[in-house]
Amino acid sequence: MKTMYVSRGYVFDPEGSHSDIRSIEPLYFETGGGFWLLKEEQSVIGTIGLKGIDSENRIGEIKRFFVLPEYQDKGYGKSMMSQIIEFARQAGLIKLRLDTEKQSYKAMSVFRSFGFYEIPKYNDNDIAEIFMEFSIVS
């Protein structure tokens, strides 16, 4: 994970803002989601997570979507997104949300290609600038 954050000019903070990485089981799997690694041989080249954030309204949240820069523009991000949407559909979710920053223009391109649209702020992430939603069921 550290490599992924450093490649974007961030400091990896597993004790603070990235502490969810230390609690994958309760935050992702136990909420009805999961956490996936995209690997090439023994190296992690991408990640994506899904956690349930509103079980009553069947809403999940995509987190930690990332592909290393040298592997971008090769379809890996779209493949991960397609698979997580299908996983969410099979899990009975009807909406997916995410937050991101303006500088994540490649990720936003992937989100928009799937039909994610901007919504008002829905969480307490002070770093995020853009909030998006996707309706799984039309």
From TrEMBL:
Name this protein carries in UniProt: GNAT superfamily N-acetyltransferase
Domain N-acetyltransferase span(s) in chain numbering: 1-137
InterPro entries: Acetyltransferase_Enz, Acyl_CoA_acyltransferase, GNAT_dom
Classification of source organism: Bacteria, Bacillati, Bacillota, Bacilli, Bacillales
Domain of life: Bacteria
Matches recorded under SUPFAM superfamilies: Acyl-CoA N-acyltransferases (Nat) (SSF55729)
One Pfam family matching this protein: Acetyltransf_1
PROSITE patterns: GNAT (PS51186)
TM spans (from-to): none
PANTHER family per record: FAMILY N-ACETYLTRANSFERASE, PUTATIVE (AFU_ORTHOLOGUE AFUA_2G01380)-RELATED
Gene source species: Paenibacillus harenae
